[in-house]
Amino acid sequence: MAVNLATNQRNADMLATDGQLDELIARASKFGDTLLFKCIRNIAQFNPNCHDTFVAHLENYACMVQQCGENTDLMLELLGTMVYIPTDSWEDVIKKTNFIEFIHNNLVNGFAEDDIVLESVMLIATICRTEKIAELIANSHLIKML
To answer: What CA–CA distance (Å, rounded) separates 85 from 83?
Structure first.
């Protein structure tokens, strides 16, 4: 029920107030709960007021998504949430987590499910916010993969 409630901006705002979003992210991370991450993704999509909270967790998300392995449902929710985190902090995250290579691997033909490929392409669009990041992506193999 919370997943559907979070698709309304007012409800998403209520779910994210007073540090509740941090607690929700911590609980979802601790247990690897896909449904909680789906709720968090909806909050990210429908509540732009909690942008700073998501930026604070961006590096953790980048690390978690790379450790999903065969759990594509969890990977989809993590990637989907990151799509709604437009920030200039991406440059640091990319360098610390080797994220470009991870995205590249998701774009290899036949390697990932279609939903993962779609979220990866959308994430590339989100990441390209500064000239340096655009240059990193242009010099990688990602452009050829698209």
So the answer is: 6
Question: Which two three-digit tokens encode residue 8?
Answer: 């309304």
Q: What's the predicted TM-score (pTM) here? A: 0.92
Distance of CA 76 to the CA centre of its chain: 8
- pLDDT (tens digit per residue) in 30-87: 999 999 999 999 999 998 889 999 999 999 999 999 999 889 999 999 999 999 999 9
| Residue 81 contacts residue 37 (beta carbons within 8 Å) | yes
Q: Are 82 and 123 in contact (CB under 8 A)?
A: yes
DSSP run (H or E) holding 101:
helix 99-107
Q: Count CB-CB contacts under 10 A for residue 17.
A: 12
